[in-house]
Amino acid sequence: MSEIGFYSQLPSAIKTRSGHPTTVPVDATTNKFTPLFVEKSVNPAQSDIAAATAFKTRVEGRQLLLTNSFKDKPSALKKSVGRKTVTAKERRTLRIYEIPSEAQKYANFLPLHRLWSQYIAGVVGDKTGEQMLGRVMRADMHGVQLSVTRAKCPNYVGVSGIVAQETKNVFRIITTDDRLLTVPKAHCAKRPRL
Q1: How far apart are CA 41 and CA 51, in angstroms?
Q2: What would you measure as the largest C-alpha separation in the chain, in angstroms?
């Protein structure tokens, strides 16, 4: 066969590598249907060659895939279907947010406090009064040195240390005697040391 446009004969090395038989037995019905189908499908206004010629040069004697090979193969560009986030139950079992007991040292959190001091100086800037208070309340509290001045539960009064973790409802504070205490945000008056 001669080459016509993009269509050319496959090299024999590729044909043998494909694993598919190169000669497929075809029944008489298919032999009659295929040329007629191609002739009816080819629009003479859009094609530069006649339908009969198109069948003889592009279809006859070739194996044609009648499925969309791109849909059948999983694309490397497709997003993965699985879940990407970790559930709350998995976080508890994996103990992701737990501070190990050997790391619960006040001295380990002093560099975090120094870093927080630089951070809050940049956040507050030259603001005073209400503006400063608003910015401090919205700031990240990891590393602030905090003391509880008033609380509904008297056991929390006097607790002070560096905030190691902050969640929606509690502060986890490392005290100077290397204890990790959980202090609720509600019903406690806390004073940060700026």
Answers
A1: 8
A2: 96
Q: Would you place residue 115 in the very low, low, confident or very high pLDDT band (cuts 50, 70, 90)?
A: very high
pLDDT of residue 44: 66
pLDDT of residue 97: 86
DSSP code per residue over 106-152: HHHHHHHHHHHHHHHHHHHTT--HHHHHHHHHHS--TT-EEEEEEES
From residue 70, alpha-carbon distances to 64, 74, 81 in Å are 15, 8, 18
Query: pLDDT digit string (tens) for 46-66?
Result: 666 777 777 777 777 776 666
78 or 30, which is more confident:
30
| Contact assessment for residue 163 and residue 171, using Cβ atoms and an 8 Å cutoff | yes
Contact 82, 151 (CB under 8 A): no
Strands 145-151 and 160-166: what pairing?
A: antiparallel
User: In terms of Cα–Cα distance, which of 162, 158, 147 is closest to 114?
Assistant: 162
Q: What is the DSSP string of 38-56?
A: HHHHS-TTT-SS-HHHHII
- pTM (2 d.p.): 0.54
